[in-house]
Amino acid sequence: MTGIFTEFDSFSADETMLAGKSFIEKVKVGEKVALIGSLGAGKTTFVRGAVQALGYTGTVRSPSFMLVNHYPAELEIIHADLYRIQNPAELLALNLEVEAENRILFVEWGNRFEAYWGPTDWRVEFHIDPQHEKHRLIRVKKVNPS
Fold first, then answer.
1. Cβ proximity of 27 and 53 under 8 Å
2. 79 is a domain residue
3. Which among 10, 24, 109, 146 is least buried, having the fewest CB atoms inside 10 angstroms?
4. Domains of the chain: total
5. Which residues, at least 6 apart from 62, have a Cβ–Cβ distance to it below 8 Å?
6. Predicted confidence (pLDDT) per residue in 122-131, tens digit
7. Residues 61, 69: contact at Cβ < 8 Å?
8. Is the pTM of this model over 0.85?
9. CA distance 25 to 122
């Protein structure tokens, strides 16, 4: 894994969305983004910013219950959530490898079952500051340099 590509400090949902908007400029079609962080860390908010930057005007929701959301924008975004996935068979049924073709794939809880959904191109880690509940440190790493 390469070093840190960039870091964002966020103190609000708006700042987390701005980080997502900035990040999406670097991502290419067909790339996979693993989003890693605890509940409430800002993963969906980050994706919301990325999707809006690509021109999507609809509602961006957490895929926790649907497992996979599709956002047709300038580039189609696939937004998956592995939090409720219990085993590799459930994950394989989502067919994320195929979903990622010609799209950008964001996977919340992307550190779960990594070996089963193919190599990740980006890793975005969300850290909540224990001293300041609203502060998030968002670390972006390029995993597969292209």
1. no
2. yes
3. 146
4. 1
5. 43, 44, 81, 108
6. 999 999 998 9
7. yes
8. yes
9. 13
- Cβ atoms of 141 and 4 within 8 Å: the answer is yes
User: DSSP secondary structure string, 29-69?
Assistant: TT-EEEEE--TTSSHHHHHHHHHHHTT--S-----TTTSEE
35 DSSP β-pair partners: 108, 124
C-alpha dihedral over 59, 62, 67, 71, to 10 degrees? Answer: 30
pLDDT in tens, 31-69: 999 999 999 999 999 999 999 999 999 999 988 878 888
pLDDT of residue 47: 97
End-to-end CA distance of the chain: 13
**Structure tokens of 138?**
């968002």
DSSP state of 119: -
